[in-house]
Amino acid sequence: MTLKDKYEGIIKRYRGFLPEIDDKYIITINEGNTPLIKARNLSKLINTDIEIYFKYEGLNPTGSFKDRGMTMAVSKAVSEGTKAVICASTGNTSASASAYAARAGIKSFVLIPEGKIATGKLSQALIHGATVIQIKGNFDEALVITKEIAKEYDVTLVNSVNPFRLEGQKTASFEIADELGFAPDYHILPVGNAGNITAYWKGYKEYYDAGKIKSLPKMLGFQAEGAAPIVLNRIIEKPHTVATAIRIGNPASWQKAVAARDESGGLIESVSDEEILKAYFMLASNEGVFCEPASAITLAGLIKLSGRGFFEKGSVCVLTLTGHGLKDPENAIKVSKEPLAAPCDKNSVLKIMGLNK
Ligand code: F0G
Fold this sequence. Notes:
binds ligand F0G; 4-stranded parallel β-sheet; alpha/beta; 14% strand; 6-stranded mixed β-sheet
């Protein structure tokens, strides 16, 4: 490989499918190009005969899929002379926005629900130099305030209501189709603010229209039971779930997600926190893939559907693992066995290992 072929992020790779941005304005941290990992042990464990792949978006530069959208939104903002960006966030958007703003040399303001974002995400926003404002409210309330400020002042909103965010995020569908050589039969995603499922569906449709794939997947979305406005078809005033990333009661892209579900012949359903945590542990302990609880909802959803014979034999099913597990170490420690303690000598260690003669 020569320097000329070096990978430089999604904008350059998928230029023909994205709104135009002059090279000099591109703000990239080489996001995208994430691995599509075939499950090795899970199909057997959950007794299903489908092919399962994980699109591991936790390997983006800030550890979540948000970077695909943020490179577009921040590059566009920079090209228009913006000096500051703002977002409301359950954590990942704030981590990504603050990193891309830092790289662009502009300011970032992030509004987060107090006490309800994973530690890793908070540390990211702080170290990238964002002005972090914790509000005594939830994500939905923070988004209302953020939208108003962006309307009245010279700061660019980089939540997924910014159309450039979805443009960037749709490139994950392109990567999957490019790598498989076809579109999967099913694509499973967590649904929070509902931007990502909207973006993936847009991506698949554009690839289909361009003749790059010959079929379209059915889009299967999952929400947590305590934060399932689309499933229940009503706003949830006080959403709650262990998967704080998707603790959202009034998704901004609600209707677009419903359209993705219906046009694709898919579904949006919910699973319990217990099912989420079980899948979270199962994935890490059987596949070596560590994602955050909100991402593991995809596996919880697959297990639920597979249990009622939903999938045809041999179907190809892609699960997007939206964020890295290291963002939320508290939950990982909570669902795992405690570390063992031993005095500092070899025999004690051997005894614990069960190797003492
Ligand atoms: N998974 C993770 C890890 C997320 O952080 C989010 C959203 C989602 C799934 C849901 O995606 O909102 O497009 O339906 N996080 C946003 C944030 C809300 O502020 O970081 P969506």
